[in-house]
Specification:
Layout: E1 15-21, H1 35-38, H2 42-50, E2 52-57, H3 67-74, H4 86-93, E3 103-112, E4 118-120, H5 128-138, E5 147-154, E6 157-163, H6 191-210, E7 219-227, H7 234-238, E8 242-246, H8 249-257, E9 261-264, H9 270-278, E10 285-290, H10 292-298, H11 302-316, E11 325-330, E12 347-353, H12 366-370, E13 375-378, H13 382-389
Parallel strand pairs: 1-10, 1-11, 2-13, 8-9, 8-10
Antiparallel strand pairs: 2-12, 3-4, 3-6, 3-7, 5-6, 11-12
Helix pairs in contact: 3-8, 4-8, 10-11
Length: 398
């Protein structure tokens, strides 16, 4: 892998922008086109015509990645080696002072029927203000032998942190990934993890009691159990002073995990692109995260996902006047609207910059990317490729 060589070759050079359209990849609908291919996107197509295309595998061929592993791959960290659960990423993203002995999990507020079956895994995507109100009901839950912290994240998402000795992370999620069925019982694979499982099952039972009078968020699902671990910093590996521009805390969390400076951006999608311009002179690397493409993919809304891509296309023109840059546009995984879920399909990748060797493609889409001169490659190879095209890697050897 080139990563072993990179630290000794790094030098100054152009800036790098990584624009992540979450869940970008799709599948053709009846028209024969994916959401990306069907979208009207003159600016992305213009960049494709002048740049180079390819397909990336966020984790490995045939593997469906979660958002955490998918992003670690984009950041140049092998997600098979750095296995970080969503709980830790959510806690970091909201600024929780997590400790190495803490055990964190992501919570989804969910809707349950009278028989205990899940009828909505996201409680109708409740507003963040509603999530904050419900969290106050849960933060009073006490469990034996641990401190329990419950914190709101965004919309239906929250985080729970257990603080105490001997907590293992080798447990399953309670989210059944389906409706009309009960949550999965959490089971541990070893003694420490069985302790975590017992605490988590007790927490969910107490949450059902505390939320019994609620109409939508009347229970919780738990996923992404993890203990915090430090990993090598992005700057030490790639020599880049990086900023993370994202609206959702979990994505700021994974960026913070690798040492990026997280910027809490709120409002409309426009704010993400404005933030790049505002901070352009202060950083070398800009990670920009757009959530809407994944959100509408999971909702099964082909048209809305297509329109989200079109909105990105209008906004990306703001980058045209930024000098001396390499731009990468891709996703952390595919979320085909037909599947309403993450998938294993390779993700479209676009590389643009003054040193990029153009290929013969003229449009940005899955089929065109399959013909691009970058081919199909692991996501962890993106960063060395970007550094090289930014003029940031010296020659190796005499």
């Amino acid at each position: 892998m080139p990563h072993d060589l990179v630290p000794g070759l790094v030098q100054g050079g152009d800036k790098i922008i990584l624009l992540v359209l979450d869940g970008l990849g799709g599948l053709p609908d009846r028209s024969g086109k994916t959401e990306l291919e069907a979208a009207s996107k003159p600016n992305l197509d213009r960049l494709a015509k002048k740049g180079a295309l390819g397909l990336i595998d966020p984790v490995a061929t045939g593997i469906t990645p979660g958002s955490g592993p998918g992003h670690l791959g984009l950041f140049g960290y092998d997600p098979r080696h750095y296995d970080i659960g969503r709980g830790v990423l959510a806690a970091l993203g909201i600024g929780f002072d997590i400790r190495e002995s803490d055990l964190a999990a992501r919570l989804n507020f969910a809707t349950f029927d009278s028989g205990g079956n899940v009828t909505d895994r996201r409680a109708g995507r409740i507003e963040t203000e509603e999530c904050e109100r419900l969290v106050k009901l849960l933060d009073a839950i006490e469990l034996p032998g641990v401190e329990t912290f419950v914190r709101p994240v965004k919309e239906h998402r929250a985080a729970v942190i257990f603080r105490g000795p001997g907590l293992g992370e080798n447990v399953n999620d309670s989210d059944p990934q389906a409706v009309g069925v009960p949550p999965r019982k959490i089971v541990g694979e070893d003694d420490e993890s069985r302790k975590t499982a017992d605490l988590s099952n007790a927490f969910m039972a107490e949450a059902r009691k505390a939320l019994a009078s609620e109409e939508r968020g009347n229970g919780v699902l738990m996923r992404g159990f993890a203990r915090y671990q430090k990993i090598p910093s992005f700057q030490s590996r790639f020599g880049l002073n990086a900023i993370a521009i994202a609206m959702y805390p979990m994505y700021r969390g994974v960026a913070k995990l690798v040492g990026m400076e997280p910027l809490d951006v709120r409002g409309k999608m426009t704010s993400l692109f404005e933030a790049v311009t505002a901070h352009y002179n202060s950083y070398d690397f800009f990670y920009v995260h757009v959530k809407d493409t994944d959100k509408y993919g999971e909702d099964g809304d082909y048209e809305a996902k297509k329109k989200a891509i079109e909105q990105v296309d209008r906004l990306i023109a703001r980058f045209d006047d930024l000098p001396d840059k390499v731009l990468m546009v891709t996703g952390d995984h595919s979320t085909p609207s037909q599947m309403k879920a993450h998938s294993w399909h390779p993700v479209p990748f676009l590389l643009s910059g003054r040193r990029v060797r153009p290929d013969a493609t003229t449009q940005f889409g899955e089929e065109a990317c399959s013909r691009g001169n970058l081919g199909r490659f692991p996501a962890i190879e993106m960063l060395p490729l970007a550094l090289a095209n930014a003029g940031r890697l010296m020659k190796y050897g005499a």
